[in-house]
Specification:
Blueprint: E1 6-11, H1 19-33, E2 37-42, H2 74-83, E3 86-94, E4 97-98, H3 100-108, E5 113-114, E6 123-124, E7 131-138, H4 143-149, H5 152-162, E8 165-173, H6 186-200
Parallel strand pairs: 1-2, 1-3, 3-7, 7-8
Antiparallel strand pairs: 3-4, 5-6
Helix pairs in contact: 1-6
The protein binds flavin mononucleotide.
Length: 203
């Protein structure tokens, strides 16, 4: 029997049960049906401080993520990420980009880089793509327009790269705010189903 794929979803919505979370749930349910082990983290539930830009976590070279001076849930979150073979990174598009909740998490990923004083730019500590990532976004605008005018997938891809994950797909849920409780349309449900199967197969 094949070893099951461990899938971790990290959701940056301000709403529990919002459209992006329901799209994530659809993917995870489909992946579970195919034998994957899944976990989901809502960043809303985590105590994450803002990065203070002290850069102490970036000074020591090596594969190990640098130690942060802040005492919050980020360390435990990175442990969960270590567990995963595949990451699902999901955020609504607000003001053209990821939510502030997701951005705060992404900024804290600076510990995944070696960036000593004097170096012009950070270098990922684990540049090899040992994981896979699926990027998900939702927007009030039609998906195609939101992709052109915003940078959500670019920001999520950056996070995936810092975590050593190769992006294997994206799901953009457009027209996501037509009603207070927007239902997922059939096309999105079908796409989520297929993506879940693909992730469970380790593809
Ligand atoms: C403050 C704010 C800013 C937003 N900015 C955008 C935007 O720039 N473009 C867009 O298409 N939708 C925008 N939206 C709509 C959200 O993307 C949409 O409501 C969200 O994807 C729904 O996700 P949720 O159900 O998980 O909350 C914005 C919504 C809010 C509240």
């Amino acid at each position: 029997m094949n070893t099951p794929v461990n899938i971790l979803a990290i959701v940056g919505s301000y709403r529990k049960g919002g459209i992006i979370e329901r799209a994530v749930d659809a993917i995870l349910a489909s992946a579970q049906e195919k034998g994957a082990v899944t976990r989901k983290i809502s960043l809303l539930d985590k105590h994450l401080e803002f990065c203070t830009n002290c850069r102490s976590c970036t000074q020591v070279a090596g594969e190990n993520y640098g130690e942060c001076i802040l005492d919050d849930d980020m360390g435990a979150l990175l442990q969960e990420i270590e567990w995963a073979d595949t990451l699902v990174l999901a955020s609504p598009m607000n003001a053209g980009t990821v939510t502030a909740l997701m951005k705060r998490f992404i900024e804290r990923l600076v510990c995944t880089a070696y960036w000593p004083w004097g170096a012009p730019a950070p270098k990922a500590r684990r540049p090899g793509k040992s994981k896979r990532a699926l990027l998900m976004a939702s927007s009030a605008a039609p998906g195609i327009l939101a992709r052109l005018t915003g940078d959500v997938t670019k920001r999520l891809k950056f996070a995936a790269t810092m975590l050593g994950a190769e992006t294997v797909g994206t799901l953009f849920v457009g027209l996501a705010a037509q009603q207070k409780h927007q239902e997922l349309n059939k096309r999105t449900i079908n796409k989520a189903h297929k993506l879940g199967q693909k992730l469970a197969a380790g593809k």
